[in-house]
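pipeline/complex-builder :: batch 7 item 3
reading input block
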Amino acid sequence: ETPMALLEVQDIAVHYGDMCALSSVSLAVEEGEAVAVLGANAAGKTTLLRAISGLVPVTAGAIRFDGDDITADPPHERVERGLVQVPEGRMVFPFLSVLDNLRLGAHAARARDGEAETLELALELFPRLRERREQMAGSLSGGEQQMLALARALMTRPRLLMLDEPSLGLAPLLVREVMERVQDIHREGVTVLMVEQNVAQTLKLVDRGSVLENGVVAMSGSAEELSASDEVRRAYLGI
Ligand code: ATP
């Protein structure tokens, strides 16, 4: 009776040499949901996103997207399916204009049709990027570069957008803005899986979350359940 999840991670393990970074991690994301992965430093959050993107191989388990087993597929094929990750750190091309950075996002075949429309949507969501569209990306502020990274990901027409700490290193006001834009993207119908250290704000945005501890899922629940949990409150909300 359960609907087929858009993303299904089943009992995966990831090793870096002898070191086990993830073990028996399972997670499902339904179409249209926003889901958070929480956890302390080195818990394995980035590793989980990289495994889903195909940037690190899994040593056990399976990953399915839209019902297909993609466990062994190379990263670019996952992007073609609409499984897109915005990496931690901004990674824009500093010597290209804002517009050219955005156009590069539409490189995947699935994004080329309708590129003009998607660009219009991206510039509507990010008016500051429209103002600065001819400027070199490297001349934008940190916050603007983060917005550009988000907008560029949108240009790929993602079905599932994975965000790795989109608010990292930003001032509180900008953290709020990034969160609002993520919410806008989610409202446009994009399914979201995000890693964030700003747990309080993240739990306002997502439907559900999982907490990683030392490479295993320590807890999963709705945003309400996690917000009410003593462990989450103590460890991540400072209460
Ligand atoms: P952070 O919040 O600090 O980014 P994280 O939860 O994203 O942490 P990961 O970056 O996934 O954690 O790291 C999980 C563990 O794997 C850590 O102990 C880390 O040192 C280790 N690790 C990560 N990447 C590599 C790598 N390329 N080679 C070896 N060990 C790695």
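note: The pocket of adenosine-5'-triphosphate is lined by residues 16, 19, 21, 39, 41-47 (CB under 6 Å).
queue -> next item
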